[in-house]
Design goal:
The longest helix is centred in the middle third of the chain and has 24 residues. Strand 3, helix 4 and strand 4 form a beta-alpha-beta unit. The chain has a single domain, classed as Undecaprenyl pyrophosphate synthetase. It contains seven helices and six strands. The protein is globular and about 65 Å long. It is about 45% helix and about 15% strand. A six-stranded parallel β-sheet has the order 3-4-2-1-5-6, sandwiched between helices. The chain is an alpha/beta fold and about 240 residues long. The structure holds 3-methylbut-3-enyl trihydrogen diphosphate (IPE) (2 copies) and magnesium ion. The site of one 3-methylbut-3-enyl trihydrogen diphosphate has 11 residues, from helix 1.
Length: about 240
């Protein structure tokens, strides 16, 4: 077995955002239905959350379902929603045991009422936990998030609660679903795709990107550590010279 990576003395990213991709291809390689890939992927989410906590990551945002994923075949969408229901119930049980705070970003209005009720329960019961913060992007699309924020800002201007001339970058951030959450330091996308697929476009402005060919169900603690080692080799800049 390969020697384990030692992160001692390394800079641990405060917030890691993940595009978990490749569940379908993982299943195809095994001649299994796509939903088996999603079930395996959900297990990986669980393990990676524990690993991230062990490593000392404070925030982790996972892309679970995009606004574009509704365009998948209905039986796959149904399987994903079924898995989500189970996942949210398990999370409600586990969050307090693991001192994990859970939040959901995305447009909840298109989700079924029972799913919204579970999300509300999960957010409420875990809100005082101060271990890792786990943010689930669900029916999330960055352009849609910006559109919703813009509508809300325009309404507040109309009602006299906001002055258009006072809108700063911080004002915009405060209208996004991610308000109060620090921007990601590291983005990881699995399965070899090199694109953002409408994920956190505003928030990733200065994030370091890491892409790996590993399919999401095969992603594990050592792979996460590899990404952190790469992150430590980067010369982070925010527009200034060094
Ligand atoms: C990612 O895996 C999970 C979701 C988008 C819900 P995919 O289902 O996109 O897997 P591939 O990309 O087809 O392999
Ligand atoms: C992005 O993956 C969305 C999620 C991981 C939930 P997709 O597999 O849906 O993205 P594309 O279609 O390859 O861009
Ligand atoms: Mg995919």
């Amino acid at each position: 077995m390969a020697e384990k990576i030692d992160l001692t003395g390394m800079n641990i990213p405060n917030h890691v955002a993940i595009i978990l991709d490749g569940n379908g291809r993982w299943a195809k390689k095994r001649f299994l239905p796509r939903k088996a890939g999603h079930a395996a992927g959900a297990k990986t989410v669980e393990k990676i959350l524990e690993d991230a906590h062990d490593i000392g990551i404070k925030y982790i945002t996972m892309y679970a379902f995009s606004t574009e994923n509704w365009n998948r075949p209905q039986d796959e969408v149904d399987a994903l929603m079924k898995l989500l229901r189970k996942y949210l119930s398990d999370c409600i049980e586990r969050a307090n045991k693991n001192n994990m705070r859970c939040m959901v970003i995305g447009d909840k209005t298109r989700l079924d009422d029972d799913i919204v009720a579970k999300i509300n329960e999960l957010e409420e019961c875990s809100k005082d936990n101060d271990g890792i913060t786990f943010i689930i992007a669900l029916n999330y699309g960055s352009r849609d998030e910006i559109r919703r924020a813009t509508t809300k800002m325009a309404m507040d201007c109309k009602e006299g609660k906001l002055n258009p001339e006072d809108i700063t970058e911080d004002t915009i951030s405060s209208y996004l679903d991610t308000r109060g959450i620090p921007d990601p330091d590291l983005l990881i996308r699995t399965s070899g795709e090199i694109r953002l697929s409408n994920y956190l476009l505003w928030q990733l402005a200065y994030t370091e990107f890491y892409f790996t060919d590993v399919l999401w169900p095969d992603f594990n603690k050592e792979e996460l550590k590899k990404a952190i080692v790469k992150y430590n080799q980067r010369d982070r800049r925010f527009g200034g010279v060094k």
